[in-house]
């Protein structure tokens, strides 16, 4: 079913498009989306129960997308506040490559966009792992100094009840964080599926100089990124990766995890042992910045090892960070971590209290800041 409405006037004044039970190729969907995004007025677009079929050249299209200057993160053009584009995908099936392409086009549209994906299916691609490795090695995707941003528009992205692989989630979060304009992103009730090679990729991530804590470049205070994850289960590795990207974003980021669960991995104990053998929580020399990072965990479950790992990442950020754990469940003893935190000169522990809930004493309210 196709329903199309035009404004009074030229036929080019497209205002409402609804597609239901439609099958289209990736190329057709890309051209259709491009037309909707480039329409210079208010547009509402909905796809319901559609399927975006992969094409043989979709991977080549993804490569070309990364290499095209027009799709790189560049300074936004003047935007009009008089219109907004709404794009909704419901119960739609698309490939991982097409999902990336879709998000990239929405983020870089240079005016206000509301985008929601609900109950969609992202199909894996055979070369997903290789593309993820190439993504990590591409200079265009490294954390670089932001260009001047426009406060005149923002992008709203909501991903609801959608399973995605750990690699796909990392890719999605990376695009959102590096958008270089105001982005509000909500991920609700999604499942982050583990990948066979995720541990190896995490090891490579830790060893890559491009992902180390380095001195931030000049940042713009004109925009920020809001990321909210609700009712989600993720591995310890995925959480570390997310926290690392948020901390190293080099501009203002608000990140909230609400009612989430961070699951331990088979190798997390070994990582904890290695962490215990390293010198205690160490603060590195700070650099002056004009932005801050806010990370909030609400009603979230994580291990003591993961909490210590998280604190280690925060104190190496070299810029102002505010962290809050609100009624979170931390199993195992964290008194040693508390003692180490209190001995850090630039780390201020504002609250570190154990609460009682249902007769159990594993619920914590913790607030600490890195003051630069």
The average pLDDT score comes to 76
Biggest β-sheet description: 14 strands, mixed
Portion in helices: 25-40%
Query: At CATH's second level, what is the architecture of the largest domain?
Result: Alpha-Beta Horseshoe
Number of helices: 10
Low-confidence stretches: 64-79, 127-147, 200-219, 270-284
Strand portion, in percent? 25-35%
Distance between the ends: 57 Å
Rg calc: 21 Å
Tally of domains = 2
Q: What is the subunit organization of this protein?
A: single chain
The CATH topology of the largest domain, please?
A: Leucine-rich repeat, LRR (right-handed beta-alpha superhelix)
What is the total tally of β strands? 22
Helix/strand-derived category reads alpha/beta
Q: Describe the global form.
A: elongated
Task: Give a short summary of the structure.
The chain is α/β, with parallel strands linked by helices.
Summarize the topology.
Elements: E1 2-6, E2 14-20, E3 23-25, H1 26-37, E4 43-48, E5 51-53, H2 58-67, E6 85-90, E7 93-95, H3 96-107, E8 113-118, E9 121-123, H4 128-137, E10 154-160, E11 163-165, H5 166-177, E12 182-188, E13 191-193, H6 198-207, E14 224-230, E15 233-235, H7 236-247, E16 252-258, E17 261-263, H8 268-277, E18 292-298, E19 301-303, H9 304-315, E20 320-331, H10 335-342, E21 347-357, E22 360-370
Parallel strand pairs: 2-4, 3-5, 4-6, 6-8, 7-9, 8-10, 10-12, 11-13, 12-14, 14-16, 15-17, 16-18, 18-20, 19-20
Antiparallel strand pairs: 1-2, 20-22, 21-22
Helix pairs in contact: 1-3, 2-3, 3-5, 5-7, 7-9
Structure in words:
This protein has 372 residues and is α/β, with parallel strands linked by helices. The protein has two domains: 1-67 and 81-134 and 151-195, Leucine-rich repeat, LRR (right-handed beta-alpha superhelix) (Alpha-Beta Horseshoe), CATH 3.80.10; 253-266 and 280-372, no CATH class. 29% of the residues lie in helices and 34% in strands. It contains ten helices and 22 strands. It has helices at 26-37, 58-67, 96-107, 128-137, 166-177, 198-207, 236-247, 268-277, 304-315, 335-342; strands spanning 2-6, 14-20, 23-25, 43-48, 51-53, 85-90, 93-95, 113-118, 121-123, 154-160, 163-165, 182-188, 191-193, 224-230, 233-235, 252-258, 261-263, 292-298, 301-303, 320-331, 347-357, 360-370. The strands form five sheets. Strands 1, 2, 4, 6, 8, 10, 12, 14, 16, 18, 19, 20, 21 and 22 form a 14-stranded mixed β-sheet that branches. Helix 3 (96-107) packs parallel to helix 5 (166-177) and helix 7 packs parallel to helix 9 (304-315). The termini are far apart. The model is unreliable at 64-79, 127-147, 200-219 and 270-284 (pLDDT under 50).
